[in-house]
Each structure stands twice: as structure tokens, then as C-alpha cells.
Amino acid sequence: MAVGDSDKQEGSAARGDRETSAARAAYEGSADAGAANGRADASQGDRPLVELDHVDKYFGTLHVLKDISLSVSTGEVLVIIGPSGSGKSTLCRTINRLESIDSGEIRIDGEPLPQEGRQLTRLRAEVGMVFQSFNLFSHKTILENVTLAPRKVRGISVSQAKREGMDLLARVGVDSQSGKLPSQLSGGQQQRVAIARSLAMHPKVMLFDEPTSALDPEMINEVLDVMVKLANEGMTMIVVTHEMGFARQAADRVVFMADGEILEEGTPEEFFDHTKTDRAKDFLGKILAH
Ligand SMILES: Nc1ncnc2c1ncn2[C@@H]1O[C@H](COP(=O)(O)OP(=O)(O)OP(=O)(O)O)[C@@H](O)[C@H]1O
Ligand SMILES: [Mg+2]
Questions:
Q1: Of 86, 204, 230, 279, which has the most beta carbons under 10 Å away?
Q2: Which ligand has the minimum distance to the alpha carbon of residue 83?
Q3: Does the Cβ of 38 fall within 6 Å of ligand 1?
Q4: How far apart are CA 136 and CA 149, in angstroms?
Q5: For the chain, percent helix, then strand, then coil, each to nearest 5?
Q6: Residue whose CA lies nearest to ligand 1 atom number 12
Q7: What is the Å distance from ligand 2's center to 164 Cα?
Q8: Distance between CA atoms of 88 and 81, rounded to whole angstroms?
């Protein structure tokens, strides 16, 4: 799947529901092929890489994660969907310890999450995270954005970091932009740089929290394409998204959350074509009506 390196596209005139639907439709169109998703080895990895065991999390009196147990195998792509405020971001943030938990346990590759210190830094390197906002360093070039952390945390040389950085930028289709500043790139290009920056740490698992929801519609697919490619290469991924076409195409498993609980869990086909709970049916009805 080609990953375009489109020039910066201006113009809010192109924005609009119609375009959003068109961008989605491109993914919906490939949904059938995606149901089986062609990744023969995915989801068959039996080694759990990320495990949440009866996790509870409160913000004050608000119970945001309610007895969450979830296991993600090596090479698996898990898509988390659910209404606003259901705890999807909080769940992601607890996995790389941006948020603490109140009870239960989270393990990465069999190791319980460390509380603090050097071990925590190492863990964060193992768990890559891509947010809705790209959070690139605005005064650093694209290549510097990708080489900074590996040089510091992985301790590799400048030349090795540059070599690896350029390879990663090529993988996400923005190597020709390496000398520019983030503000000179389109949103889609910046998000692809953010993905390359996470990959530069050689993470065991990648978390994506609504990576395309801040993008203009015409740039959504270029980011989804990179994510599909990563999935096909065997990356273990946890993805919070409203892009149902992507979920159908790339997910091995879909989890539906509402009010801090996991209400449904199954293959994309089970979830989308044989939705069980009224809550999920209602949610899908609203999303797909767009
Ligand atoms: N730092 C915080 N302090 C207090 N409450 C918070 C904090 N972060 C999130 N919450 C609350 O926790 C609940 C879950 O929030 P979260 O951001 O995880 O939901 P979400 O499913 O990601 O929603 P969205 O789809 O809007 O991104 C919400 O009620 C939210 O208001
Ligand atoms: Mg969120």
C-alpha cells in the first residue's frame, strides 16, 4: 500500500462531512478483504505482551476504569471504541504509566509496571504512544525530532540515529521532509513523523489514541495507511479510533467500552455484524450515520 507524501494541503474549504465520509468510505470499501485481514500470523501469537488484570482507576470519586481485564498478544491489533468519556484514553495512559492505577495489575511482557525511576523510563521506551495532537518539538527539524530520544535513551551515536531516523521517515513516507520544521508539514505528515518518532525507540507495543481525529479528512487515510502497514509487519498495537473501516480492516479484536467497563469484545466481524449490547448498537448507529 503506497503511502503518499502529499505536499502540505491548505484550505478549510475541503473540510466537511462529505469528505470525512469519503475518506471513511475508502476504508469501508476495503472492509471485506480486511475482515480476514490477510495477516495469517497475527492474533495467533499466544504470548501475552500487554496484560491488564482487574484494573480499577478513580479520578477522585469518579470510577473511570472498572475491573478491566484485558490481554493483548504479541503481533495482535486491538481496537478500542466507545463513547466519549468511557475511559479509552485513561486506559491507554495507564498502560505506559502516564496515569497510576488504584488496584489490579498491568504487565508488559510479563513484567509488572514499575512505579518510578529508571525502570519506568525503560518501560516508556518499550511502549510507544501516538496522540491526537502530534506533540513534535516545533523548533527542531523532522529528523531531529526522530533522532533526539533514541540518542538520549538508547545511547546510540549521532550517525546511527540519523541513519535509523531516515529509514523510519522513509517507512512513513516523509523522508523528503527531513530538514523541515514541523510547522512546514501538513497534519497528516506531522502525525506520520510522530509515528516514526515512537518507532525510533524500538517499542514492543504501540498505543494510538485517536491518531486521526485532529486531521483534515483528506489526510486521514495517509496516516491509516501507515498504521495498516505497521500492523501487517507484525507490530503489536492498541488503537483507540472512531475509524470503523480501519477497525474492520486492521483489527484482530475489537473492544467496546462504555462507562469505564468493557461491554463487548470480539473479532471485527462478531462485533460489527453481530453486535450484542444495546449500548454498542446505539453507539454504532450514531457513528455510522455520519
Ligand atoms: N485528569 C483527569 N482528572 C479528572 N477526571 C478525568 C481526568 N482525565 C479524564 N477524566 C475523566 O475520566 C473519564 C474518562 O475520560 P477519558 O479521557 O479516558 O475518556 P475517553 O473515552 O478517552 O473519551 P473521549 O472519546 O472523549 O476521548 C471522563 O469522565 C473524564 O472526564
Ligand atoms: Mg480519549
A1: 86
A2: 1
A3: no
A4: 12
A5: 45, 20, 35
A6: 64
A7: 31
A8: 7
State whether the beta carbon of 190 lies less than 6 angstroms from ligand 1. no
Q: Is the CB of 61 under 6 A from ligand 1?
A: no
The string of DSSP codes covering 44-59 is: ---SEEEEEEEEEEEE
- Which residues, at least 6 apart from 145, have a Cβ–Cβ distance to it below 8 Å? 136, 137, 182, 193, 197
State pLDDT tens for residues 179-199. 999 999 999 999 999 999 999
64 lines ligand 1 (CB under 6 A): yes
DSSP summary character for residue 154: I
Regarding beta strands 48-59 and 62-73, do their DSSP bridges make them parallel or antiparallel, or are they unpaired? Answer: antiparallel
Q: Record the pTM.
A: 0.86
- 89 in ligand 1 pocket by Cβ < 6 Å? yes
pLDDT in tens, 121-176: 777 789 999 999 989 999 999 999 999 999 988 889 999 999 999 999 999 999 99
Enclosing H/E stretch for 250: helix 244-250
